[in-house]
Specification:
Residues 33-52 bind DNA. This protein is mainly alpha-helical. Helices cover 71% and strands 0% of the residues. The chain has 9 helices and no strands. The radius of gyration is 20 Å and the shape is elongated. The termini are far apart.
């Protein structure tokens, strides 16, 4: 397991992290070794290991960076919404826009989990932590959107549905076409929010009945 001591910030560290992050996302974490990163960044091996004592430390820093960007994006979208329902639409719209951005290659966390399936691996654990935060955040917004009605759907189940649609869109966009995947995801979010207006709690009946 990598060290938990925070490395000092420096221009060299940021260059190494930025280059590694791009390579990890584009080519895969296991496919990119330290030698490859050093070939891309004009720095020494000693500098690399001063900032990242192991490759694992670098991988964790990469995923923490993605986590920070995601939290910021969700927070910005949430603040932009004029209501909780509009906040959910804004979060969904931002994600749909990501699908069509140049260089999009899926969810960094899903890709990392595929490469590191061991639940005890620090890389896998940071993926689980990120997803727990995401689910809790979306659950909170759905709870705000549904209000206090006794017949409201379960906000967590709605959030799980949202997360499943997100995973599908991010995983299948490059196969099914990014424009189609983005459009389908947007419609899915609208469908979830329609429950707010229809009061159709039965849609999320855990018995599976409709």
């Amino acid at each position: 397991m990598g060290t938990t001591t925070a490395a000092p910030r420096s221009e060299a560290r940021e260059r190494l992290l930025a280059t590694a992050s791009e390579l990890f996302y584009r080519e895969g974490i296991r496919a990119v070794g330290v030698e490859r990163i050093l070939a891309e960044v004009p720095t020494t091996r000693a500098t690399f290991y001063r900032h990242f004592p192991s490759k694992e430390d670098l991988v964790l820093a990469y995923l923490r960076g993605v986590d920070t960007l995601t939290r910021d994006a969700v927070g910005t979208a949430r603040e932009a919404g004029s209501s909780p329902a509009e906040a959910l639409r804004a979060i969904g719209a931002a994600l749909a826009d990501d699908l069509t951005s140049p260089g999009f290659r899926g969810c960094a966390f899903l890709k990392a989990a595929t490469e590191f399936p061991d639940p005890e691996d620090p890389v896998h654990r940071i993926v689980v932590e990120h997803r727990a935060w995401y689910l809790a955040t979306i659950t909170e917004v759905f709870a705000e959107a549904f209000g206090d009605s006794a017949e409201r759907p379960d906000p967590r189940e709605a959030a799980q549905h949202f997360l499943m649609m997100r995973d599908g869109a991010m995983s299948g966009a490059h196969l099914d076409g990014v424009d189609d995947a983005a459009a389908v995801f947007r419609r899915g979010v609208d469908g979830l929010l329609a429950v707010v207006h229809q009061g159709a709690a039965r849609i999320y009946d855990t018995s599976g009945s409709r």
